[in-house]
Structures are given as C-alpha cells and as structure tokens.
Amino acid sequence: MNKEIKIAENSYWVGYVDDRKVPFHRLILEKGTTYNSYLLKTDKATVIDTVDISFGRKIVDNVKEYMDPAEIKYIVINHVEPDHSGGLPALANKAKDAIIVTTELGAKELKEMYRLHDREFLIVKDGDKLDIGGKTLVFFETPYLHTEETMITYCIEDKILYPCDIFSSHVATYDLFNDLADEDIIEDFETYYKLIMHPHRPYVQDMIEKIRDLEIDMIAPSHGYILREDVQKYIDIYEQSSKATTEDKQALILYSSMTGNTRKLAKELKLGLEERKIESKVINVKDNSNLEDIKEEIKAADVIFFGSSTRYADLVGGLEEVLKELKEMDLSTKFGVAFGSYGWSGEAIEVINDYLNDTNIKVVDSSYVIKNTGMDNLRFPIRVKFSPGEYEKKELKDSAHLVADLLIA
Ligand SMILES: Cc1cc2nc3c(=O)[nH]c(=O)nc-3n(C[C@H](O)[C@H](O)[C@H](O)COP(=O)(O)O)c2cc1C
A Gene Ontology molecular-function term (predicted)? Predict the structure, then answer.
C-alpha cells in the first residue's frame, strides 16, 4: 500500500486500486475502479468488505500494515459479489477466529462460493447492532442493491455509512476522497447509478427511507470516491433519480381464453400495472375482433402483453391473427411479454414468444430480465397452470411491477 488512508479515528482504507481497463457486467470500465475495503481497528477489530477475488493477497498485506490479521474479530460482508467478497478466503485464512457478519442469504451464498461451511457466521437483520469495542455498527438490509442478499453498514460513533455498491463510482484513484478529486465526479457517479442501481429503483427508494434519519458525515462505498463533502447531494441524486415516473406510460393486454383462466391472469397483470401507475387496456381477442382497431391500440402502447391458453398444443381465439400482423409493424420502442394459462405443457405461450422474437419488439423473457436487471426470481414468459391461486396472483403482480420498472429504465 502506498500511503496510509485514514477515514476516521482508528479506521483505515485497506482496499486496492485497479487501474486497468476492467471488464465488468459486459462493459469495459475505461477508468478502472477501486475495491474499497475498510479496517476499523477497535478492540474487536473489524474489516468491512474486501477486494476483488484477483487481489486477495493484497488485502491481507494491507491489513498487516496496521495489525496482525489473526487478531481480526469480525469480517463484515455487505454484498457477496466477488469484487467485494473475493478477498474473504485469503483474509479468513489468516484471521482464523474471525466471525463473518452478513445477511442470512449472504451467509448461504458465501458458504457455497468459498466452502466456508466450518466458519462461524453472525447473521444480521434490519436494524441489528454490533458492538465492536469502541464503535457500534448497525446493519440495514438493502435487497437488490445490487443483488438480493445485500445489506449496508452504519457506524454510529463515526457517522460513516458503508453502503458497498450503493453510492459508488467506477474510477481508479489514489486521491480517494471526493473533495480531493481534480475533476467533477458527478458524471461517473450518475453513470454508475444508472447502470447498476436504476434497474432496481423501487429498492433504492426503500433504502433511502432506511437511511433518512441517520446522521451521515461520510459515505464510504466499495468503488471509487469516498464522499465526505456535500454528502446529502449524492443521497439526493439517488432519491430524485429513483423517483422516475411511469405515469405517461401505457400498457395493452391482449388475450384469448377458453374458460376464463387466461382472463384472470390478464386481470392480475392489470392490477399490478395500476399499482405502478401504468394505465392499461385489456382486450379479449376473439376470432371476429377488428384487427385494424387492435393494431392502433398496439401502436399507442409502450408495452403489450400477449396471452393465450393452450388447446391441443396450439393457441386459442383470435390472438394468432394479431401476432401475424406484428412483423410488418415497427415495435422497436416497445416491450412485448407472452403469457398464458395452461394445463401440462403450455405450447401456446412459447409460440407467442416465437412470434415476438420474429419482430423488432423488446421481448421480455427470462434471458432479457436476467441480462438487464440481474434478477432471476420471476419466470418470463409468464406461465400459470390452470387458474391462478394466491401465490400465482402475487407472482403476476410482481411480474407486472418488474415490467413497469423496465419501462422507465
Ligand atoms: C380441449 C383442451 C385441450 C387442451 N390442450 C392442452 C395442451 O395441449 N397443453 C396444455 O398444456 N394444456 C392444455 N389444456 C389445458 C388448458 O390450457 C388449461 O385448462 C387452461 O387453464 C385453460 O385456460 P383458459 O381458461 O384461459 O382457456 C387443454 C384444455 C382443453 C379443454
């Protein structure tokens, strides 16, 4: 490590500056990045987050500049992605008695990733406190910021928030504090927000509520600049940007049904969209429906759901006639989602998806969702066996919420 970077009394940066062009989430980070790790050298010395898996030995060396790593009592892992937890195996190997502090899901994933089944874990939940001997840490669960297991850590005495990926920026810099930056850092900060956090903006709003009453003098994230000047300005950027509205967006739900089950799915999707303030029109497409009218409705919509149940491995009603028209339309600015009720194989839903893939519409299927949001808890196209129960109704609403979020990405 080149120089001591002290962030508060007995608290030091022990991370790594990666000034290569770093490949990350199918991007090349032209300005590199930093993996910020922090050592709180209290009576129960604590490391908060580590470094990328490629630099595990560096964090051990950095800690050694301040203390014997064997004396570390706690290692806090806010987020398990290997650019932050990657130094854990090397560090835990030296800190043999250290307790790993993380969320329940975080512990499950870390054990699998690094074969840490024999290590002691402390599972924390929203608002739990930990006395580390001279300082007190409080933990808040912040799911999907940026993956499901994520939490953030706040030190009461230092008034420092350690939010891991949240409030980060991808810049390789040795002048780690924002007031020392020789350039305006807002663009990098906003770019990071847009790419990593914005797809999860409802969760950003939840996080803002959790930290609203904390006194925060400094934000010490895990990439890029540590924010100690104009701290509120950066929180405000997250709050304002995550409020982006869906009010001017319109959805169209087209369906065909034999006995009304697919109609029930359409109804739940509409309710879910309305909860996100998206106006939606539902049309039952029959054999004699007016195709020109439906095409006008499609042109006016930002997202179109196409639903059919399956009858002898085929679509029902008049939906296929509509699907045949799509190829001739410019749908490049719109999202398309296939759905349907089925009994055992649900071929119609897959056929709808094939039709959509043959147009220039943005097809919301599981592959698209994973690649654009990192979320894999909902399945697209939307398939429900027979009539939706309470569980399926909730999933349908969640699916509608996710599509609503895609609309303002
Ligand atoms: C005559 C008939 C044929 C069916 N064929 C299939 C089929 O090939 N594959 C399948 O998964 N489900 C099949 N089903 C089950 C329906 O898709 C299922 O009952 C669905 O919930 C009906 O939804 P709806 O009320 O929206 O039409 C069939 C049902 C009927 C009555």
Answer: oxidoreductase activity, acting on NAD(P)H
Specify the ligand 1 atom closest to the Cα of 316: 27
Nearest CA to 17 among 217, 197, 186, 226? 226
Q: Model's pTM, two decimal places?
A: 0.79
Residue nearest to atom 31 of ligand 1 (CA): 311
Centre of ligand 1 to C-alpha 278, Å, is 30
Q: How far is the CA of 341 from the centre of ligand 1 (A)?
A: 8
Which CATH code is given to the segment(s) 6-241?
3.60.15.10
> Which residues belong to CATH 3.60.15.10 in the chain?
6-241
Q: Determine the straight-line distance between the first and last CA of the chain, rounded to whole angstroms.
A: 39
Q: For residues 359 and 322, give the distance between their C-alpha atoms in angstroms, rounded to a whole number.
A: 13
What is the 367 CA–ligand 1 centroid distance (Å)?
A: 26
Cβ(387)–Cβ(341) below 8 Å: yes
DSSP state, residue 196: I
For 61-82, write each residue's pLDDT tens digit: 999 999 999 999 999 999 999 9
With the most atoms of ligand 1 within 8 angstroms of its CB, the residue from 311, 312, 339 to mutate is 311
Tens digit of each residue's pLDDT (9 = 90 or more) over 159-203: 999 999 999 999 999 889 999 998 899 999 999 999 899 888 889
Task: Compute the CA torsion angle 260, 264, 267, 272 (nearest 10 deg).
Answer: -160
Check if the interface score ipTM surpasses 0.95: yes
**DSSP string of 345-394?**
S-HHHHHHHHHHHTSSSEE--HHHHHHHH---SS-SSEEEESS--HHHHH
Residue ranges, comma separated, of all CATH 3.40.50.360 domains in the chain are 250-407
- How close is the Cα of 263 to the center of ligand 1, in Å? 13
* 225 Cα: distance to centroid of ligand 1 (angstroms): 56
Instruction: Pull the structure tokens for residue 361.
Output: 């519409």
Q: What is the CATH number of domain 250-407?
A: 3.40.50.360
